[in-house]
Amino acid sequence: MKKQPQAAKSGNPRTKFTAIEALPRNEAESQRLIHELAVHQVELERRNEELRRALQELELSRDNYAQLYDFAPVSYFVFDPVGIIQEANLAGSLLLGTERQRLAHKAFAQFIADAEGREIFHRHLSSVLQQQTMLRCEIKIAPPNGIAIYGQLQSAAVAGKTQTNLILTSIVDVTVRRQLEEKLQLAHDRLEETVQERTTELTRMNLRLSQEIVERKEAETGLQGALTEINQLTDRLQLENIQLQQVMAREEGYGEIIGRSDAITYVFFRIDQVAPQDTTVLLLGETGTGKGMVAREIHRRSSRQGRPMITVNCTALPANLIESELFGREKGAFTGAHARQMGRFELADGGTIFLDEIGEMPLELQVKLLRVIQDGEFERLGSPRTLKVNVRIIAASNRNLEEEIHAGRFREDLFYRLSVFPITIPPLRRRREDIPLLVDYFVTKFNKKTGKKVGHVSQETLKTLQGYHWPGNVRELESVIERAVITSQGSELQVLDRFAAFHTSDEKAEQEVKALADLERDHILQVLHKTNWRVEGKTGAALLLGLNPSTLRARMRKYGIRRP
């Protein structure tokens, strides 16, 4: 057994033992504290190293920002709330023609050309600070010993080192744009003056003509000469009016399609409805009514206008070649196929394909066409590989496809796929009021082609042309005018064709009148819906239809049109 330690001679033996026993615990605690201090020391040194690296990166970033700010191609300024320049980059000093050091603490207003601009500038700064958002304005800047420019300011509130109310502003030179705008406005003003002068001149001419008519009626000897002069001047004014209407029609953006009648205006309305969509369109109408032009106009107004529009005339291709023309072929697919050929659908990928005279397509190909419409897929002749395309389809036919279905020559399912959005193009006999516009358009066209200067079309000629039934429609009218321009002697159009009188059965005439009435009723309904059933005023249906409000109300009563 261990011997018990001998108690000390003086003091409490138990107290001395407790002190001796506590000593190792204090040393351990001290060691632990020393170790923790060492750990904390290492941690502090690590954090100090991280802080030093962060400071270096911050200084580098600040240097990079300073370089970007100083050498940016755009002029930058920092203003205080009253427009005193605090900082400017090199581009800013060049813009004002003043060294950067001399710009500091100068009022930017002294570089603004006029009092109005200075007022705009101060309101601009105040609005930026109040709204705390990015704002723009334009003012005229006049650097000392420099050329005045127009500057566009774009400003945002920023926080500075010594205050949270500073404004960072970029200035872009928009002088060229402003000069172009001023030139455009000047040209517009001159045009208005010219129109006003011409209107005044025409008013004076009309007044003088009226006076001459009264005087010539009093003098029987000069009556015939006065009437001839009046007719000539009337024809000239009508020609100018037709030219003006044609210009207006072209400005409305319908390109080759000429006309302002209710029947053709409804076609324009249908084009506007469907063109922005990718919907399949079926164009119906007689030969020569302009179905191809309507197809081109739909493509031109669509999102696919930058891609090709491929036209396929189903009557112009032999039946044994239609399939290879539409879907392409591989080399050796049939006798004479010496090379691989892409089909029209591949060429139209991303764009539009126009299938003219779709009623002429053979039945065996209609199934393949139906698959393209449904799935966008087909195979080339002689190839098992399936191709996929994204094509908008516009089809056209001068046949009654429903009758073709009953006769077993056209697939009913294909008809329903094609006629998602049908548009019927009216024949020329249903829009006779467009004939003067078309005549003028074709005369101008063939004048350029032949080098002639035919410019006058008499009222008698126009009445003759408007009285004919035009079985060949616009295409026939174009041929007649081309012949007339070639054979005319002098400046007046001489139409040598002899037009047979047009007689129709009462039943057919009634059908045409009914069809035109239905077309007009639908057009009026569409415009009323568009204007929220407002009849009068600048946004009313009467103005859009070119009718007096009372006339429009009478037609609404006639067709039984009532607001829901």
- Mind describing the biggest β-sheet? 5 strands, antiparallel
Number of strands: 12
Give the fraction of residues assigned to helices.
40-55%
CATH class of the domain at 262-426: Alpha Beta
Overall pLDDT metric: 82
CATH H-level name of the domain at 262-426... which superfamily?
A: P-loop containing nucleotide triphosphate hydrolases
Shape: extended
Strand coverage percent: 5-15%
How far do the termini sit from each other?
Answer: 119 Å
Count of separate DSSP helical elements: 19
Read across the widest sheet, the strand sequence of neighbours is 2-1-5-4-3
Helical/strand content category: alpha/beta
Rg (C-alpha, Å): 43 Å
Shape-level CATH architecture of the domain at 262-426: 3-Layer(aba) Sandwich
Oligomer: single chain
Which spans of ≥5 residues are poorly predicted at pLDDT below 50?
1-23, 249-253, 502-507
CATH topology of the domain at 262-426: Rossmann fold
What does it look like?
With 564 residues, the protein is α/β, with parallel strands linked by helices. Among the domains are: 36 residues; 102 residues, PAS domain (Beta-Lactamase, 2-Layer Sandwich), CATH 3.30.450; 165 residues, P-loop containing nucleotide triphosphate hydrolases (Rossmann fold, 3-Layer(aba) Sandwich); 53 residues. Helix content is 53%, strand content 11%. The protein is built from 19 helices and twelve strands. The strands form three sheets. A five-stranded antiparallel beta sheet has the order 2-1-5-4-3, with helices on both faces. It has a five-stranded parallel beta sheet with strand order 7-8-11-6-12. A two-stranded antiparallel sheet has the order 9-10. The longest helix has 59 residues. It starts with 12 loop residues before the first helix and ends in a 6-residue tail after the last helix.
